[in-house]
Specification:
By secondary structure, the protein is an alpha+beta fold. The protein folds into 2 domains: about 150 residues, Sandwich (Immunoglobulin-like); about 35 residues. The protein contains 2 helices and 11 strands, in the order H-E-E-E-E-E-E-E-E-E-E-E-H. It has a 5-stranded mixed beta sheet with strand order 2-11-8-4-5, with no helix packed on it. Strands 1-3-7-6 form a 4-stranded antiparallel beta sheet, with no helix packed on it. A hairpin with a 2-residue loop joins strand 4 and strand 5.
Length: about 200
C-alpha cells in the first residue's frame, strides 16, 4: 500500500497547530507521515438517560480510502454539549468483525456526563497504526465528516423516576393514611351520635 506523504509546508503546519486540543494527551500530531482519517461517526441510541449504554461506531481510513488497522486498538472521545464537556481518553475500541477499518466504542452514561444534546467526537490525533501514522487531524464528529448517514449526537436526559413499590408507598404514606382513617371514624361516630340525639 502506497503511503501519501504530506510535506512540511508552512501553511499546513500552521493549520495543524491551531487544531491542537488541549484536553488530549498528545500535543502535536505528526504530519510528516500519512494522517489517518475518520470518515464516519455514529452513536446509538440517540436518546438516553443516566445509566444507559451508548455504542459509537467509527470508520478509519488512509487518505486513499484504504481501511486502517489501529495499533493499539484505543481511541479518545469527547462528549460535548452546552452544559459542559467530558473527555474519555485511551479507551479500548473493538474492531467490527468482517469490516476492516470499523470500530466500536461502548460507554455507559453516568451523572458526570453533560446533559442535553451531546455531540460525541473522536479526538484529535488519538488514533495510530503500526507504522506510526496518526490521526485524525482535528476532532471529528458526524458534524465534520462528509458522510450524510452518520449521526453522533445523543440527547442525554436525567433518569426516569421509578414507580414506588407497595412497601415504599406504605412506608411513605402509612401515617397520613392512619390519621385519615381515624378522622373518618371520628366523623362517623359524631354523625351517628347526632342522629341518635335527634331521634330521642
Amino acid at each position: 500500500m502506497a503511503l501519501l506523504v504530506i510535506g512540511l509546508s508552512t501553511p499546513f503546519m500552521a493549520f495543524a497547530q491551531t487544531t491542537v486540543e488541549t484536553t488530549t494527551t498528545r500535543t502535536k500530531c505528526p504530519t510528516y507521515l500519512t494522517n489517518l482519517v475518520v470518515d464516519f461517526v455514529d452513536s446509538t441510541p440517540h436518546s438516553v438517560e443516566i445509566g444507559t449504554t451508548v455504542v459509537t461506531t467509527f470508520h478509519v481510513v488512509y487518505p486513499d480510502g484504504t481501511p486502517v488497522t489501529l495499533s493499539p486498538e484505543t481511541a479518545s472521545f469527547s462528549w460535548t454539549s452546552s452544559s459542559g464537556q467530558k473527555v474519555i481518553e485511551n479507551v479500548v475500541v473493538v474492531p467490527v468483525a468482517g469490516k476492516p477499518g470499523w470500530y466500536t466504542y461502548t460507554q455507559t452514561v453516568d451523572s458526570s456526563f453533560p446533559t442535553g444534546t451531546v455531540t460525541i467526537s473522536v479526538l484529535y490525533c488519538c488514533l495510530s497504526d503500526a507504522l506510526g501514522n496518526y490521526g485524525p487531524t482535528d476532532d471529528t464528529s458526524s458534524d465534520t465528516t462528509l458522510t450524510v448517514e452518520d449521526n453522533s449526537k445523543v440527547n442525554v436526559g436525567p433518569p426516569t423516576p421509578k414507580p414506588l413499590t407497595m412497601q415504599e408507598l406504605l412506608a411513605t404514606y402509612a401515617i397520613p393514611i392512619v390519621i385519615a382513617i381515624l378522622v373518618i371514624i371520628a366523623l362517623l361516630l359524631l354523625a351517628a351520635r347526632a342522629r341518635r340525639k335527634k331521634g330521642t
